[in-house]
Amino acid sequence: MEKTKIPYKIYLEEHEMPKDWYNVRADMKVKPAPLLDPITKKPITKEALQKVFCDELVEQELDDTNAYISIPQEIRDFYKMFRPSPLVRAYCLEKKLGTPAKIYYKFEGNNTSGSHKLNSAIAQAYYAKEQGLKGVTTETGAGQWGTALSMACSYFGLDCNVFMVKCSYEQKPFRREVMRTYGASVTPSPSTTTEVGRKILEEFPDTNGSLGCAISEAVESAMNKDGYRYVLGSVLNQVLLHQSVIGLECKTAMDKYGIKPDIIIGCAGGGSNLGGLISPFMGEQLRGQKSYRFIAVEPESCPSLSRGKYAYDYCDTGKVCPLAKMYTLGSGYMPAPSHAGGLRYHGMNPVLSELYDQGLMEAVTVKQTEVFEAAEYFARVEGILPAPESSHAIRIAIDEAKKCIETGEEKTILFGLTGTGYFDMYAYEKFHNGVMNDYTPTDEEIAVALNKLPNIE
Amino acid sequence: MEKTKIPYKIYLEEHEMPKDWYNVRADMKVKPAPLLDPITKKPITKEALQKVFCDELVEQELDDTNAYISIPQEIRDFYKMFRPSPLVRAYCLEKKLGTPAKIYYKFEGNNTSGSHKLNSAIAQAYYAKEQGLKGVTTETGAGQWGTALSMACSYFGLDCNVFMVKCSYEQKPFRREVMRTYGASVTPSPSTTTEVGRKILEEFPDTNGSLGCAISEAVESAMNKDGYRYVLGSVLNQVLLHQSVIGLECKTAMDKYGIKPDIIIGCAGGGSNLGGLISPFMGEQLRGQKSYRFIAVEPESCPSLSRGKYAYDYCDTGKVCPLAKMYTLGSGYMPAPSHAGGLRYHGMNPVLSELYDQGLMEAVTVKQTEVFEAAEYFARVEGILPAPESSHAIRIAIDEAKKCIETGEEKTILFGLTGTGYFDMYAYEKFHNGVMNDYTPTDEEIAVALNKLPNIE
Known about the structure:
Two copies of one chain form a homodimer.
Chain A: E1 9-10, E2 20-22, H1 46-52, H2 55-62, E3 68-70, H3 73-82, E4 87-89, H4 91-97, E5 102-107, H5 118-130, E6 135-140, H6 144-156, E7 159-165, H7 166-171, H8 173-181, E8 185-189, H9 195-203, H10 211-223, E9 228-230, H11 237-256, E10 263-267, H12 272-286, E11 293-299, H13 304-307, E12 309-314, E13 323-328, H14 350-357, E14 362-366, H15 368-382, H16 388-407, E15 412-417, H17 425-432, H18 443-451
Parallel strand pairs in A: 5-15, 6-7, 6-9, 7-8, 10-11, 10-15, 11-14
Antiparallel strand pairs in A: 1-4, 2-3, 4-5, 12-13
Helix pairs in contact in A: 2-11, 3-5, 5-6, 6-8, 9-10, 11-12, 15-16
């Protein structure tokens, strides 16, 4: 039961903001499988990981026992610049739909990176700075992570080199300028600046690039430069840990008003937003305290949970990264150039993969045009122009709210609105002009990609 | 004295949000001069104004006696979707500058229009809807007002026709797509769709357009269409009234924490943001309760307060609008194509003009490159990518804070951060590439333009 009239937007007070991140692995009975060394195919050592990643982030990556990890004061101070993010009651959307459902969304777009990515970027930049590094390298798909990392690096005075997936680089020239505003260098990927990039270009000269390619290039680049490490905006467990700030704020706000969501929905590419949003709620479920329905929404063109295999696979196309056990379409899978660049990843974070495998989470896929229909509808009704990625969650939230019209159920629906679409107007233009395509990979395509998975027991 | 530790961001509770707009004219002893009919050159009648503007908005335009005007519930509900806007304590900026000054800014950019313009857009759309109109026409410079109006019209189911200043239309194709997302039609101005547009194109075939031209086209278009009225995003007194919500929220938040600003700074194009921000503070000053230093910041290329004349002038290039007594550079003045499209207007709101003439407000001009230097600095330090318009205020706020370093004074500085620069990356790119020009009109240019002012006593 709701205790009081819920405001349109719930902002926590500064003192209510989380002081610790929550590590859902601590509450999992069956833990996600360990990362494997790409050379030996044995569980990777801390030392090997530290050649690629910052020391403290390796500790976090491997920690599956501590439920709470303290957020350093410098990071909490930075969080105060753009957090708490509002938990919004979608009164207008409910009214327009005529649904008895109560819809809430946690809006992470009110910062210059335009998404939730800043939550982890500032943490990763902080630990790089603490370690005395000169800079970091990374990849970016839609450009949100690259922008977030540029902002974080600028704040701590670190050099920032971004490999940007080629199709996004071309569709979003202004994203590059935002990153330059924050002093970052941006290279379209695949590029000729790395060995792995040249190799990919040789094999696929017309490729639009993919997150998998860009990751390989960024890792190679970091390992060849003194005082640099690689950082990643999704997929890794450390990222889920940092992003738990989303779910923690959300839960505090909901508890404060006595709201309990029945369904929690998030878009899923590498899993950073979905994992961050659901972590504290999933924790309650794992501890047997409460139960929720969790839904991961994937693009039809890149359905790693829905149509992939739970197996060890490379995290990147160039096979230079550790292997992770995850739901995957195969590291060689080249997703169609959809407009949700942030969801074009072949695999899924290992924690989410394991939770999905245990039947604790559902997954659905949606077509691109259906996503943009929902995006435009939402923009008009709720006044926020959503990112294509976020609009995957909107689509399913609307569908679930519509089901409540039929059944009369007053379900409480919570979804993650990860970001804004200001840099996605090229995609919106295609949608307005009726020239946007949908793409569903055939069973054969998927089978071919899965056949190339490394054979590891 | 500050009572308690000030949070990074102050958000009012819903119940603390203003229920009335504040009309500063009520507290002015010398009122702004009346609008004149463009044909008779006599004070314009309510009936004549109602041919151009919505009935209720005409009432508000002419009301210089009622200090408080109730905000209709529907508008207050819409406000709740994107307001209250945060009052931000710029702790990071203060630290980076090493200033003893305390800096605050009221950030109006956290909505899809990207600026404060939505405050008045929703009010104007509401009254158009109440009057049973089919739609409205308007002009837009930088595109923020056009976007805001598109959103407001979409909310109330009104048709929306936007004339967009040509140079902005070309520099910002994605702005057009945002407006289309909200169902608006967008025409570059000057266009061949109106008589006045054709006339201007004949005289200046290579013109980049100006707000003055676009206004003429929008007015003509509205008057020729059944069930349409013209709406305007700045300059008018009704707009200042709606925008007072900025200053009212600001004052409530500051009073709550016992903060009293010494200096209040805003960028000034037509005056909508500046007027809205300062109104309640100016009211206190006019009533003899408190005193403040108010600074209007203008672009060096379009210095209406700083170098214009206080005289009756046309509000538009085509001379179809009423005449207003205001600081003006002449309605024929064609400002250089700077990147702060929202400030390229030849005149200044009559209320602000009168206050400035009474010596109650200062005005300064800043060069475009100095503005972008401040913008980039601010983006890196405070994490918000500001609009070029807003960055005019940032420039002066930083300069004032630097003066405090020299004098050791702990002044409290408040400025209006009107919007975000996500659609201004073309301008940022020019700045990054070192190809941005400054432009200072010569005395002769100004004199030539002022010579063409209509001769009215």
